[in-house]
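Form 12-C: Joint structure prediction
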Amino acid sequence: MHELKLHNTLTGKTEPFVPLAAGEVKMYTCGPTVYDYAHIGNFRTFVFQDILRRYLKQRGLKLHHVMNLTDVDDRIIANAAAAHLGIREYTEKFAQAFFADCKALNIQAPEHWIRATDHIPDMVKLIEDLREKSFTYDSEGSIYYRIAKFPEYGKLSKIDLTGIQAGARVDNDRYEKESARDFALWKAPKPGEHFWETDIGPGRPGWHIECSAMAMKYLGETLDIHTGGIDLAFPHHENEIAQSEGATGKPFVRYWVHAEHLLVEGEKMSKSLGNFYTMRDLYGKGYKPSALRYALASVPYRRQLNFTFDGLTQATNSVERLRTFADRLKQGKFPPGSPAGFKERAGKALDDFDAGLADDLNTAVALAAAFDFLREANIAMDSGRFGSEDASAAAEFLAKFDEVFAVVAVNDAEKLKELGYGPAGDGLGDSEIDAMLAERQAARQRRDFAKSDEIRKKLADSGIILEDSKDGSVRWKRK
Ligand code: AMP
Ligand code: ZN
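Section 2 - Result
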């Protein structure tokens, strides 16, 4: 295994990652704000976090990973009030959609999935701690954090605080660097808006206090890793540091890891530009969850990801190549041994794969390691120089690959069906097709060609085309 390095926004350096407690990682991820369906930009960040999570596990680390649902913030309060719905009523649909989208993209559930609205007392307690240490002041029923009281304010986002007026306040949860001000920890109720009755008065939490309170409740005062998209570095994460370190006097997070944004065809994604996509929009256009996961994972997280439909088609083809190779390994007949040394070659592929991911999660290098190996192995198979020991070593490599990338299993049709897309009504699911193929292979082996033709025809009637290859393996495709 290669030494793992991660880029830390706090130090601006790519550093060896050493967890505080050997063998364990305490990680917090800012989850989605469930005021709408999450978009492909959001999922760029969530897929990156999943790759990080899976790779840490592959390295044998035990994870304590917390991810929250932001189910109360300015946008939710405004939308719920406009819809005359309670907050839970309003957010539940989007929370469930988010879970379903994660499942379709093979994003693993963290050890703790938590909701902000289940943790109001923890937030109140943290605000009380900060008040006791004079980090706060009250104004018109709201409570603000006094940034002048925390001299290290700005250390994450490196903002220049000169010229900022002491005591100037900002009430919005989200604002630009130029508007750095004392921010709201607790917001006074407004007519028609949801609020909680608490020891610090009626109102609702600011967005930033939510993550500080939840992260420290589940992971303690000092975390190993905190992740999110780059837009969260300021003000959200800067404010999390001010709140948490103000209250505890201890370092809050050791490694801040941020993903760059996704652009669409080179432009910022926005509804007004007509280039805004949710996962569901793309499933509706016929793209598969595996291709989307691949497209989102293939660009290293610190590079902007330029999402294009050409790129998505390429991702679809790359996933197909991986699956074809997996099929050949499963179904091919290979001579004994390792005639051309592919066993060692598979070991090198694994080493290159690990080197790529260890280098600040360079997924492009890790994928290149896999595809170089596939190309060479396919050539060896075509020329009959690929042995059974090579096949086992290659299968082992592919399994390691898929522990992190999670795109090889053929189950897109089932996932789409679950989400309400894909083959209409009586369309065959992937596992049904696989079962019919196995039956056909068995029929061919006992030379029952009538039966094997009958199955081929049945599949063809459902729009499934079979391709028999020289080495005896069979691939199928939807028309
Ligand atoms: P939100 O639901 O707005 O709190 O965002 C959820 C996550 O998506 C956060 O980590 C954001 O930083 C991230 N995010 C938002 N827009 C994009 C984008 N265009 N590309 C990548 N990540 C994004
Ligand atoms: Zn957060």
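Section 3 - Comments
The chain is about 45% helix and 15% strand. The pocket of zinc ion (ligand 2) is lined by residues 30, 211, 236 (CB under 6 Å).
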